[in-house]
Amino acid sequence: MNAETLTLRLFEALIDGDRRSARSIIQSQADAGVSAETVFVDLLWPTYEMIDRLYRSDQLSVLNHHMATRLLRVLVDQTSMRLLEEGPGQIEHETRGKGRRVLAVCGPTEESELGAQMAVDLLEAHDFEVCFAGGGVAGDEIMGCVHETQPDVLLWFSSVPGDLPAIREMIDRLHEIGACPDLQIAVGGGVFARAEGLAEEIGADLWADHPLDLADTLIYDADHRAPADQRTVGRSKRYRSAA
């Protein structure tokens, strides 16, 4: 069965709230020897994007959306356990995260938090040390945590435009005070994929619209910091299948 057909089957099970069928689809992939990373990036992530896209265009009811996102979160949690056991399959060991510390936050919506969870799970599998605070955290608390823990990366994940003012304000404040000069600021999520150049405009050092690309970017561009007059890094990044 090809990936598109499998994604559609999983999507239908999720919006129907069919927990048994959804679990069976994921289990069938494990039984067939498909790696957890491949399940993540070629099945779970495209299904997540489909749910998000259809809900934003008012083609999914609130009921179907809520059943789908909550059940998908269960599947992500289960697959994450296998992902950590197997380790990543696409990035060479010597070029993985090497313990770089990431503080990850996201917007308050269900979509942003689920997408962010998938991204940080992949980062953890690639040897990053990740603290994930989720959404709804006040900017002052995030700033305080950055100052106290001095992470290597602050990652903002967002799927909706309403998150952008808070992200922009946080980046501006971090640049203004310069209290953590080596901090790398990365952003990801659907809102940045839908508006080319947006990440650069708000002052981020790196961005990616797919979690596997995000891991690649944070590994291979670990030393990059965007100058004030040129916010273009990441624009050429493209989704890379794990299959």
Report the biggest beta sheet as strand number plus sense, adding barrel if it closes: 5 strands, parallel
Which structural class do the helices and strands define? alpha/beta
The tally of helices reads 10
DSSP strand tally: 5
Q: What fraction strand?
A: 5-15%
Report the span from N to C terminus.
13 Å
Domain module count: 2
Radius of gyration computed on alpha carbons: 18 Å
Output mean pLDDT.
Answer: 84
Overall body shape: globular
- Can you tell me the CATH class of the largest domain? Alpha Beta
Q: Please mark out the parts with pLDDT under 50 across 5 or more consecutive residues, or reply none.
A: 230-243
Annotated CATH topology of the largest domain: Rossmann fold
Percent helix among the residues?
A: 40-55%
- What's the helix-strand series? HHHHEHEHEHEHHEH
Can you summarize this structure?
The protein has 243 residues and is of the alpha/beta class. It folds into two domains: 3-86, Methionine synthase domain (Methyltransferase, Methionine Synthase (B12-binding Domains), Chain A, domain 1, Orthogonal Bundle), CATH 1.10.1240; 95-220, Rossmann fold, CATH 3.40.50.280. The chain contains ten helices and five strands; from the N terminus they run ααααβαβαβαβααβα.
Give structural attributes.
alpha/beta, 2 domains, 10 helices, 10% strand, Methyltransferase, Methionine Synthase (B12-binding Domains), Chain A, domain 1, five-stranded parallel sheet, single chain, 243 residues, Rossmann fold
